[in-house]
Amino acid sequence: MEDSTPDSGSPRAGSVLFIFLIAGVAALGGFLFGFDTAVINGAVKALQLHFQSGPLLTGLMVSLALLGSAAGALAAGPLADRFGRIKVMVIAAIMFAVSALGSGIPFTIWDFIFWRTLGGVGVGFASVIAPAYIAEVAPARLRGRLGSLQQLAIVTGIFIALMSNFLIAFLAGSAENPWLFNITAWRWMFWTEIPPAVLYAVAALMIPESPRFLVAQGKEAKAASILRKIEGGDVTELVNNIKASLVRERKPSFRDIMGRNGLLPIVWIGIGLSVLQQFVGINVIFYYSTVLWRSVGFDEGDALLITMITGLVNIVTTLIAIATVDRFGRKPLLLLGSIGMTLTLGTLTVVFSNAPLVDGQPSLTGAGGITALLAANLYVFCFGFSWGPVVWVLLGEMFNNKIRAAALSVAACMQWVANFIVSTSFPPLLASIGLGGAYGLYTIAAAISIFFVLFFIKETKGKTLEQM
Question: What H or E segment, with its residue span, contains residue 358?
Answer without folding.
Answer: strand 357-358
